[in-house]
Amino acid sequence: MAIVEESEFKGNPVLILKNGEEDRYPFTFGVKKAKLMLEHIEDIKKFVAKNDKEKV
């Protein structure tokens, strides 16, 4: 189960996404990248749909 945490890096807020408690390489990003992802969420969804190897 995924884990989402808020933290801080060099005084700036960041969001940390983990695949689980033992995830050694979490995905961390700040507000600027989060805004960019939100602006392009449809492109990201298309990319995942096209390239997802875990499709059923």
SSE order and pairing:
Elements: E1 3-9, E2 12-18, E3 27-30, H1 31-39, H2 41-51
Antiparallel strand pairs: 1-2, 2-3
In words, what does this structure look like?
This protein has 56 residues and is α+β, with helices and mostly antiparallel strands. The protein contains 2 helices and 3 strands; from the N terminus they run βββαα. It has one domain. A hairpin with a 2-residue loop joins strand 1 and strand 2.
Short summary:
With 56 residues, the chain is an alpha+beta fold. The protein has one domain (3-51).
Instruction: Give the percentage of residues in beta strands.
Output: 25-35%
Q: Report the order of strands and helices.
A: EEEHH
- What's the total helix number? 2
Give helix % range. 25-40%
- Mean of residue pLDDT? 95
Low-confidence stretches: none
Largest sheet: 3 strands, antiparallel
Structural class, judged by helices and strands?
A: alpha+beta
What is the C-alpha radius of gyration, as a whole number of Å?
A: 13 Å
Total domains, how many? 1
C-alpha geometry: flat
Strand order of the largest sheet: 1-2-3
- Strand tally, please? 3
Distance between the termini: 19 Å
